[in-house]
Amino acid sequence: MNESKKQSVQFRSATRWVLCAFILALAICLNTWQNIDAKYRTESQNILQKHKIQLRRYLIGGKLKLSSSSYEESIIDLGSQQKSSKRENATLLMLVRNWEIEGALASMHQLEEKFNSRYHYDWTFMNDVPFTDEFIEATSAMASGHTQYALIPSRDWDIPLWINRTHMEKCMSVMESSGVLYGGSESYRNMCRFNSGYFFRQKILDSYDYYMRVEPFVQYFCDFPYDPFQVMRLNNKKYGFVIAIYEYEDTIPTLWSHVEEYLEKNSLDDNETLDFITDKSHFSRYLPIVESTTGYNLCHFWSNFEVGDLNWFRSDEYIQFFTHLEKTGGFYYERWGDAPVHSIIASALLKPDEIIHFDEIGYSHPPYETCPHGESFRQVHNCQCNPNGDNNIDISQASCLMKWWKNGHGKSFLRPKTDSS
Ligand SMILES: Nc1nc2c(ncn2[C@@H]2O[C@H](COP(=O)(O)OP(=O)(O)OP(=O)(O)O)[C@@H](O)[C@H]2O)c(=O)[nH]1
Ligand SMILES: *[C@@H]1O[C@H](CO)[C@@H](O)[C@H](O)[C@H]1NC(C)=O
Ligand SMILES: *[C@@H]1O[C@H](CO)[C@@H](O)[C@H](O)[C@H]1NC(C)=O
Ligand SMILES: *[C@@H]1O[C@H](CO)[C@@H](O)[C@H](O)[C@H]1NC(C)=O
Ligand SMILES: [Mg+2]
To answer: Is 306 designated active site?
Structure first.
């Protein structure tokens, strides 16, 4: 054999070995892929099976325990009736500016997908200036129910004439320079006063019993397991919330003293719910996140999501209380939010079981969100949220929910036993 022939044979046998090694590697890989493939297939079948069992137990009226603050069978059982239920006398409600159209549509799309496409409730939009054609067209197209639009009259929105503007402007610039959120904003103050005492008196809402408030760029994480309006009516609820947090005290320096003034003159038949906003104890896991300097613990239901009974808001008791607060000028000289005002009046006038925490509604209004904790619940209702994530406020330090559980209605096993129970 000459040299070149020898090299060629060596080369060919080397090629054969490389080829063999390659085929062997390929075979091993394929085998592993197949194993992984099979593993995924089994896993996904298991999950499907688990999901099916849960869905069946849920839909066929078994007693699957949902994540619920109330443990009231009547509310949990509504889940299985949802398909046959008819519409309540209610509307979805958004106060919004024309330039917020993108956020308005984003919120609408989510609420339609997760809830309203099954019910077709009306959408009501309110604005202090006329809505543009573009806004009306786009929101009407997004809604699965009728849409209607209202222009807020100046007397319900703008600064009342009896407000001392010189004084107001002085207060505003002090608040602004000390960094109070929206401390220098006049329009934010109009919005808060309107949402505290005037939205429910707009003519366009006269024909409804209930509303659900919607804001631009909020999110709904789960398919609604029930119609919240129906839950409200069947259980005689007047106010519903999903998140409760602490207010910034420097927005409401004198609010509580005016509340006390009112309560001294108008004694309550039943002050049980007040414990929610006056309980200053804290839970051993946490140091208090805020210390208030008054009897008010600063807890309030976060009003960017709320479901309310309009007839309660329209009642003399609510309006008298609101009017007493309004006359002090605090909406303008300070920067009272509609959330503490709703919450304080509700806690004074309503019984604990007339307020409901909608534990089953996953919701986000930056920077906070709430996500149902029950794993089965999240699977059955296609939730897109992480109950253990940092943003879930439910039992974090910034949340007042534990105070609601303790003093309000709901997880009654957390409350000390009274003689009657
Ligand atoms: N028409 C109108 N709507 C307003 C005005 N100011 C606020 N709003 C609406 O009132 C609601 C509350 O206002 P936001 O600006 O969201 O106030 P917020 O939720 O306290 O604060 P953010 O953290 O900024 O969301 C939203 O639905 C706004 O679209 C206003 O001047 N005119
Ligand atoms: C309005 O407020 C200013 C500044 O606080 C005060 O000097 C003035 O007397 C007030 N005017 C009235 C009519 O009360
Ligand atoms: C809906 O509620 C309004 C306000 O309470 C009431 O006037 C109206 O009659 C109700 N409509 C129906 C169909 O019940
Ligand atoms: C509720 O009323 C009782 C009896 O009048 C009183 O002792 C108690 O301090 C009141 N609670 C609050 C929070 O005001
Ligand atoms: Mg907002």
So the answer is: yes
Q: Measured from the CB, is residue 266 less than 6 Å from ligand 3?
A: no
Confidence category of residue 68, pLDDT binned at 50, 70, 90: very low
Contact 173 CB / ligand 2 (< 6 Å): no
Rounded to two decimals, the pTM is: 0.87
User: What is the tens place of the pLDDT at every residue in 296-332?
Assistant: 999 999 999 999 999 999 999 999 999 999 999 999 9
Query: How do strand 239-241 and strand 244-246 relate by DSSP bridges?
Result: unpaired
Whether the per-residue pLDDT at 53 is higher than 90: the answer is: no
Q: Whose CA is nearest to atom 2 of ligand 4?
A: 271
Residue nearest (by alpha carbon) to ligand 4 atom 11: 271
Mean pLDDT for 45-64 is 68
Q: How far is the CA of 108 from the centre of ligand 4 (A)?
A: 43
- Protein residue with least CA distance to atom 6, ligand 3: 207
Atom of ligand 4 nearest to the CA of 263: 14
Q: Is the CB of 79 under 6 A from ligand 1?
A: no
